[in-house]
């Protein structure tokens, strides 16, 4: 469906659903589901960065964690490096874990405050390798060099570091087992603006050095434009548009993508004054009760009657450019 004839997909996701059950009442009966991810399909090709964008609560982070099987998924297919892991029991995933790693959003919360930097970075090596202590030490120093941390800091604890340095520790830990695929879950959201560019540039340098493949989750569209090869736009648990970076920013096909891009600040004051803002009315519907038809129909400025009844098909509208919108059926 989304195959690229030139590059080989490292990650294939098909019709991924992640529904969380709702229990209510005195007897805690199952009364519904929160449809955090509701039928998502995409590929991530070797060596590329796929940006996954959308507003808070749209299911981006849940999707990233589900792809790495940090959750037991509801339904769907996940294939990483030729191995189908969608229905694999957690215990059987252990040999595959080194291939896929994650950089978490909050470096403060994702690092154990009682462990030194040496122990944090070395922990994956202790769990998954049979290296000698000397070899582990050398590997930790190599990783600290790679992410720009002074080797003398190896004995310090996370509280002694700044946010940017903590995120570098998290990145070094993710690289310890030589992964092929890394999910970056808003890795710069908790950092100062002055540090964000440094971390993104570091991720790009490491990608080039180690041949990494990223799923980069963010709500910062300007940063995604800088780092991503292709961009997927998510709304209320579904991907509404997926396209190469420049094509998406130059010619968005979905009304939600247009609204998102219209909110990106324009640094040129003369252009900023002429920018047309698309202000969406109302709030995002609850993922436990999504609208009938198109998920975006309750807020779309171009809504039609068919949008409220029939879910649009996610299809290719231009070469490599996919979108799900009934407006495209008319063109």
Quick description:
By secondary structure, this protein is α/β, with parallel strands linked by helices. The chain is built from eleven helices and twelve strands. Helices cover 30% and strands 24% of the residues.
Textual characterization of the structure:
This protein is α/β, with parallel strands linked by helices. Helix 3 runs parallel beside helix 5. The protein starts with 8 loop residues before the first strand and ends with a helix. The strands form 2 sheets. Strands 6-7-8-3-9-10-12-11 form an 8-stranded mixed sheet, with helices on both faces. It has a 4-stranded antiparallel sheet with strand order 2-1-4-5. 30% of the residues lie in helices and 24% in strands. Strand 1 and strand 2 form a beta hairpin.
**Proportion of β residues?**
15-25%
Radius of gyration (Å): 21 Å
Strand order of the largest sheet: 6-7-8-3-9-10-12-11
Q: Helix and strand succession?
A: EEEHEEEHHHHEHEHEEHHHEEH
* Proportion of helical residues: 25-40%
Q: Major β-sheet, in short?
A: 8 strands, mixed
Q: Give me the number of helical elements.
A: 11
Mean pLDDT: 91
How would the global form be characterised?
A: globular
Stretches where pLDDT is under 50 for at least 5 consecutive residues are none
By secondary-structure content and strand pairing, the structural class works out as: alpha/beta
- What is the terminal separation in angstroms? 22 Å
Strand tally is 12
């Amino acid at each position: 469906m989304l195959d690229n004839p030139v590059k080989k997909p490292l990650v294939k996701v098909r019709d991924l659903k992640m529904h969380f059950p709702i229990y209510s009442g005195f007897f805690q009966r199952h009364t519904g589901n929160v449809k955090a991810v509701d039928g998502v399909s995409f590929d991530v090709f070797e060596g590329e960065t796929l940006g996954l964008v959308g507003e808070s609560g749209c299911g981006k982070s849940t999707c990233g964690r589900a792809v790495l099987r940090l959750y037991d998924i509801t339904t769907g297919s996940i294939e990483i490096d030729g191995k189908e892991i969608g229905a694999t029991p957690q215990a059987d995933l252990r040999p595959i874990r080194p291939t896929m790693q994650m950089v978490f959003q909050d470096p403060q919360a994702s690092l154990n405050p009682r462990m030194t930097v040496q122990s944090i970075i070395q922990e994956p090596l202790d769990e998954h390798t049979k290296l000698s202590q000397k070899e582990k030490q050398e590997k930790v120093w190599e990783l600290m060099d790679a992410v720009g941390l002074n080797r003398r800091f190896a004995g310090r604890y996370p509280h002694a570091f700044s946010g940017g340095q903590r995120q570098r520790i998290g990145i070094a830990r993710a690289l310890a087992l030589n992964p092929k695929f890394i999910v970056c879950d808003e890795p710069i959201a908790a950092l100062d603006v002055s540090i964000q560019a440094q971390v993104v540039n570091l991720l790009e340098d490491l990608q080039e050095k180690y041949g990494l493949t990223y799923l980069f989750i963010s709500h910062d569209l300007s940063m995604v434009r800088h780092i991503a090869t292709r961009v997927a736009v998510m709304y209320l648990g579904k991907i509404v548009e997926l396209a190469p970076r420049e094509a998406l920013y130059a010619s968005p096909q979905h009304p939600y993508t247009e609204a998102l891009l219209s909110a990106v600040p324009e640094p040129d004051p003369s252009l900023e004054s002429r920018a047309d803002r698309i202000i969406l009315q109302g709030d995002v519907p609850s993922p436990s009760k999504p609208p009938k038809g198109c998920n975006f129909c309750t807020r779309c400025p171009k809504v039609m009657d068919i949008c409220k009844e029939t879910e649009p098909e996610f299809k290719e509208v231009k070469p490599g450019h996919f979108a799900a919108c009934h407006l495209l059926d008319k063109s």
